[in-house]
Design brief:
Length: 565
């Protein structure tokens, strides 16, 4: 889903197998001069004798996280060895098994998976898209997720027929039979004037600390839901008109591909093969069709559905708390990815940092007051479905008994708009949740989600990490990933602020999402800080302050007129 948003290099990491990850690191470990400086800084932050134990724990976390890290080994296995992890695909099943084995090897407790209804698995064996006429060219393209195979090569002329709304269908009736239909507007391309790789300046971080006024526009919600159904409507129209296949344009230049598709529910798969074509190749096809005879394309797509298990699975592990009445704190990241790349920055990076924080705390043998729980979510890329299933089971549901059931992508858009909020028995047990899902960039702060009381506490927790770049608490909320449904029912869920690097410009959901774009120094810093935050939250005298329980808002502008779709 859409997302908003140095450290010590103690070890050099190389690609490794699972066996090597599990092995004890027997190399001689010595702290550098800079490491000693960090440890001294951490110990000097708080001088009160009553908090000496916390100081010592922070210093031990920094030492383990920076000098003995395994975070890049974990990320490499998820990216290089397992690769893209589309929910319910064979690769995702491997990731589910491997991450559980890792947690167990590190000594975590209550390691298990929890299922929820999802839909079909899907994976790509191979694909080829060629322009045959007016000259042969191998195009850069990828099958769109959950589209069927071609069952052999399809060769046909193209027709450029951009469609954004169902009302666009009328102008193309009777013109698509036997054609490969290019359904995106070609555009003209553009060069980004901003650098593709970026770290936040102090000024940019400060600008994030702005209270964001909420807005409520029911007409806008209706338009969003209509657009969410458009893909299904277009597929049905193309099939009815006799089209053979369709193609979309990549939404980034630079020959990057994404291949996103959302028709994953059982019994609702697309009728036609679909491919996404790199923007530069797509525009070439459109230009040729404009000035002469339409080019002929050949598409040979070998894709497979996997219906062996319609349930998707979230992965959980714990460090048990000493006080069963104190509840639990939690950290999570989504394990699933799209298929164009290897799912490295989105989100092997976040998953590896969650797992590394678990390893650090387990290795140190901490005995927190509250249980510390670790979650690896599935179905995030389709509609945050894994974390939503967990929220409904453990925290709260939304809506009345007569509301129709929600399935698929509509759950993301419509569920937060339902009233009332119905709290589950475990609602009060969650003391804090921390999410990581904005690439591999260094943690620079945390979004307090319009919760100023929590912001003050975070400022104290960040103290030992100022020298590592962790300095900013932003009161503002952030959107688009697995903490949002926790916030939507009034429980304390938070997302960290990370350096953007090239996440939004190149790697997010793209074919460039590979291990090479991960930053090891940043990820070691992130896992270390996360471990410290979790222990602080677990041992705090009181749970983090909660926001008010959400209630149905008033319309922000009662005098606005609906816009035309």
């Amino acid at each position: 889903m859409p997302k908003r948003r140095g450290a010590v290099n103690a070890l050099a990491f190389v690609p490794a197998t699972r066996h090597s990850i599990a092995q004890q690191n027997n190399a001689k470990r010595e702290a550098s001069k800079h490491m000693r400086h960090l440890l001294l800084a951490a110990a000097a932050v708080i001088t009160a004798p009553a908090q000496a134990q916390d100081q010592a724990a922070t210093a031990r976390i920094i030492d383990e996280g920076m000098s003995h890290s395994q975070v890049m080994l974990t990320a490499q296995h998820l990216s290089d060895v397992i690769g893209p992890r589309l929910t319910n695909s064979p690769a995702m099943r491997k990731a589910e098994q491997w991450t559980q084995a890792q947690f167990r090897d590190w000594g975590l407790k209550n390691v298990h998976k929890e299922g929820y209804p999802f839909g079909r698995g899907w994976w790509i064996e191979k694909s080829s898209v060629r322009m045959v006429t007016p000259r042969p060219i191998q195009l850069t393209a990828i099958p769109i997720a959950w589209t069927p195979p071609t069952n052999g090569a399809i060769s046909a002329p193209i027709v450029v027929a951009p469609m954004k709304r169902a009302r666009d269908f009328a102008q193309y009736k009777g013109k698509l039979a036997g054609k490969i239909v290019l359904v995106s507007q070609p555009g003209t391309g553009s060069e980004n004037a901003k650098p593709p790789f970026h770290r936040y300046t102090a000024e940019e971080l400060a600008k994030l600390d702005t209270f964001e006024q909420p807005t409520y526009d029911p007409d806008a919600d209706k338009r969003t839901l209509e657009r969410a159904d458009f893909e299904k409507q277009r597929d049905a129209f193309l099939k009815e008109e006799g089209a053979l296949a369709y193609a979309t344009i990549s939404y980034r230049d630079g020959m990057l591909l994404h291949g996103e598709g959302y028709m994953f529910e059982t019994g609702k798969s697309p009728a036609l093969p679909g491919v996404q074509i790199a923007a530069e190749d797509y525009r070439r096809l459109a230009r040729l069709a404009k000035i002469g005879e339409a080019p002929t394309l050949e598409i040979d797509s070998v894709t497979h559905y996997d219906d062996s298990d319609p349930n998707a699975y979230n992965i959980f592990a714990e460090i048990p708390g000493t006080d069963p009445r104190a509840g639990f704190v939690m950290a999570g990241a989504h394990l699933d990815s799209w298929v164009a790349g290897d799912g490295a920055t989105d989100n092997a990076a976040g998953s590896a940092m969650i797992m590394e924080a678990a390893r650090i705390l387990a290795t140190l043998g901490v005995r927190p007051k509250r249980t510390i729980r670790f979650a690896l979510w599935s179905g995030e890329e389709q509609a945050l479905l894994g974390s939503l299933a967990w929220v409904e089971k453990n925290l709260a549901t939304r809506g009345g008994p007569n509301d129709p059931p929600l399935t698929g992508e509509r759950r993301y858009y419509e569920w937060p708009k339902r009233w009332p909020i119905n709290r589950q028995p475990g609602y009060d047990a969650l003391a804090a949740y921390f999410n990581i899902d904005n690439g591999s960039g260094k943690l620079r702060g945390i979004y307090a989600e319009n919760n100023p009381a929590a912001a003050k506490i975070f400022e104290g927790w960040m103290g030992p990490f100022h020298s590592m770049g962790m300095t900013q608490v932003a009161v503002a909320p952030t959107e688009g990933t697995d903490h949002v449904f926790m916030q939507a029912v009034g429980t304390p869920g938070f997302q960290f602020i990370q350096d953007p690097l090239d996440y939004e410009t190149r790697t997010h959901h793209s074919s460039a999402d590979t291990y090479d774009h991960l930053k090891g120094d940043d990820m070691r810093q992130g896992a270390t800080i996360l471990a410290s935050f979790l222990l602080n939250a677990a041992d705090a005298e009181k749970p983090l302050p909660r926001p008010p329980l959400p209630t149905k808002p008033a319309v922000t502008d009662p005098f606005a007129y609906p816009e035309n779709n």
